[in-house]
Amino acid sequence: KSTLYVVATPIGNLRDISLRALEVLAGVDVIAAEHIQITQRLLAFHAIHTKMITLHQHNERTASEKIIAMLAEQKSVALVTDAGTPGISDPGGLLINQVRERGYQVTPIPGANAAICALSASGIVTPHFLFYGFLPAKSGERKRKLESLKSLSSCTLIFYEAPHRLLECLADMTAVFGACRQITIARELTKLFETFYTSNLDGVVSWLQSDENQQKGEFVLLLSPVEPENDAEISEQVKHTLYILMESLP
Ligand code: SAM
């Protein structure tokens, strides 16, 4: 009781939710959802009938007060967003801060996240990545942000982007990182039209332009690192293997 659960929900496939998340959603007094209609679909699919209130970007402050009042009455609340993990390019941070400040328990219930889902199946071999989330909507500002990330050349850079800004965003990435930079587009993850496409920036733009259907849906963009950090290590390993081979060859 008096706990705020931060519950990750699916990013497409309604079955991508943990048993623990379902138990929590069914057991709490109230679910705070970004859009009641969207979460209702998930709850109906799993036959959950918990009462809901809204908490979104524009009412987070007032909704937080309501939730804190509920916690004060020994109630438990689950926070969910439309998809994925709350607080990751989604509301939740302000509420969680206030709940912690008042001394109530906050418990995460982990699950889907579009960035990690995309990275996990991208095939990019990288020990390091930077999750940026959404870039600014305006091109000038976006280019400045991209410039500021240029020095992180040994990291995979992960972005979220809306479909209507996809091509202009890729044009700015090309201007900043050059047309040869490798990029993976992860589209409609866990859904019917799930697609992964990897090429250089030039190649990805041509592919998108050749098929407008590929410009629809939800996207994660992953820019590959330029210099793998462990280059030196790999070449040492290669040298060692060559040495052993030479030793054992007749
Ligand atoms: N909190 C979410 C998470 O944990 O991933 C992210 C929410 S953010 C408002 C929505 C963005 O996440 C979309 O615009 C898209 O960039 C990305 N996204 C969410 N679901 C996706 C999916 N199924 N496939 C690809 N990208 C997705």
TrEMBL record:
Keywords: Cytoplasm, Methyltransferase, rRNA processing, S-adenosyl-L-methionine, Transferase
Keyword Cytoplasm included in the entry's annotation: yes
Residue ranges of domain Tetrapyrrole methylase in the record: 3-202
Catalytic activity field: cytidine(1402) in 16S rRNA + S-adenosyl-L-methionine = 2'-O-methylcytidine(1402) in 16S rRNA + S-adenosyl-L-homocysteine + H(+)
InterPro entries: 4pyrrol_Mease, 4pyrrol_Methylase_sf, 4pyrrole_Mease_sub1, 4pyrrole_Mease_sub2, rRNA_ssu_MeTfrase_I, RsmI_HTH
Predominant cellular place of this UniProt entry's protein: cytoplasm
GO MF: rRNA (cytosine-2'-O-)-methyltransferase activity
Source superkingdom: Bacteria
Protein localization: Cytoplasm
Cellular component GO terms held in the UniProt record: cytoplasm
Enzyme Commission code(s) on record: 2.1.1.198
Known function: Catalyzes the 2'-O-methylation of the ribose of cytidine 1402 (C1402) in 16S rRNA.
Family note: Belongs to the methyltransferase superfamily. RsmI family.
HAMAP family hit by this protein: 16SrRNA_methyltr_I
Name of the molecule in the record: Ribosomal RNA small subunit methyltransferase I
